[in-house]
Design goal:
The chain folds into two domains: 5-218, DHBP synthase; 248-342, Rossmann fold. The chain is 31% helix and 19% strand. It has ten helices and 15 strands. Strand 9 and strand 10 form a beta hairpin. Helix 9 runs parallel beside helix 10. The two termini are 32 Å apart.
Length: 345
């Protein structure tokens, strides 16, 4: 098996090498502020096919395209400059780009069907990570990049996570150290009224409304299992099971007492692990513990969530107990990832 080329995002020559790989139709994993993405030329159908093959991702799940600046929007989207949508996109881009917000916008004919799963809207964002922006500028291309992991598995927030899933399946990784936000971008359809939030993230509904003056409605996916041949998803990140560790994940509405009750009831045959908020005490120590973060510090919980789930998997646990933070703001994004990761279908 071919080993993935490991490049250093702090080295200009390595960024240039990664850009060359993308320009030649290859795949490069790179850090954004959210998670590591697996990038390929968004305008090349053969390059896009390599993303789906490496991730074992089904064709009905669309991709997000990353751009270097708002001026590049016209290369892949078509928006009437006199429209209300143009006004909203302008306000949202001024408020949140570069940053962890993806907008679903009308696509141009240059975008292959594989990127959007055949749908008329393409997800677009401008990442704020310096090395991601440097790579996009060096490549001079729109880069499609879902999370750089095996489909459905816990998202990668370090280069080691990427290599654990995809080593030998992708051409290169541009290592920039751990990501900072730790959860995938907020995904919004700004054309509808109210605007539709398909995936919660670091940019919250309240912030979106404050920027535009338009209400936001949260999309609720169907609870039933998908059919054998599901139709294309309306947005990235709305599959009912995703982000899952190898161990079974059990969620507890977040109190220290409830966590200890669930620990006491855990089957004896399970090797149990806990993602444990700082300062919480357990009534038994016969458990694998990965420290999570301060319960009052939601950005810290978000940034270390996937890292913690992978660390517990690495220690061979079969059951993970994890408390859920109370709803609201960034906690909604944390809850979304954990609830999808815990589903059995």
């Amino acid at each position: 098996m071919t080993t993935t080329l490991h490049l250093d995002a702090t080295t200009p020559a390595d960024i240039a090498r990664a850009a060359e790989i993308l320009q030649s139709g290859g795949t490069v994993a790179f850090a954004t502020e959210t998670v590591y993405g697996l990038g390929a030329n968004a305008l090349s159908e053969p390059a896009i096919a390599k993303i789906f093959a490496a991730k074992q991702r089904p064709s009905w799940d669309p991709l997000i395209v990353h751009l270097a600046s708002p001026s590049a929007l016209s290369s892949i989207t078509s928006i009437d400059p006199t429209s209300e949508l143009h006004r909203r996109v302008t306000l949202l881009s001024e408020a949140f780009w570069p940053g962890p917000l993806t907008l679903l916008l009308p696509r141009t004919a240059s975008v292959p069907d594989a990127v959007t799963a055949g749908r008329p809207l393409v997800g677009v964002r401008i990442p704020s990570h310096p090395s991601a922006l440097a790579l996009l500028k060096a490549a001079g291309l729109p880069i499609a990049a879902p999370s750089a992991n095996t489909f459905g598995h816990t998202s990668p927030t370090t280069a080691a996570h990427v290599l654990a899933d995809l080593n030998g399946r992708i051409d290169a990784i541009l290592d920039a150290g751990p990501t900072t936000v730790g959860l995938e971008s907020t995904v919004l359809d700004p054309a509808q009224t109210p605007m539709v939030l398909y995936r919660p993230g670091a940019v919250t509904p309240a912030e979106l409304t404050a920027a535009t003056g338009v209400a936001v409605q949260v999309f609720i996916p169907a609870e039933s299992p998908p059919p054998a041949q599901p139709e294309a998803l309306p947005s990235p990140g709305v599959g009912i099971r995703h982000y899952a560790p190898h161990a079974r994940l059990q969620l507890i509405e977040g109190t220290e007492a409830a966590l200890n009750q669930s620990l006491a009831a855990a089957p004896a045959h399970e090797r149990t692990g806990i993602l444990l908020p700082l300062g919480w005490k357990l009534t038994t120590q016969n458990v694998v513990i990965v420290p999570w973060g301060s319960w009052a510090d939601l950005p810290s919980l978000a940034a270390t969530l996937f890292r913690g789930l992978r660390a517990l998997d690495d220690q061979g646990v079969t059951l993970i107990l994890c408390p859920l933070p109370p709803p609201g703001g960034l906690a909604d994004a944390i809850r979304d990832r954990l609830q999808k990761a815990a589903r059995s279908v």
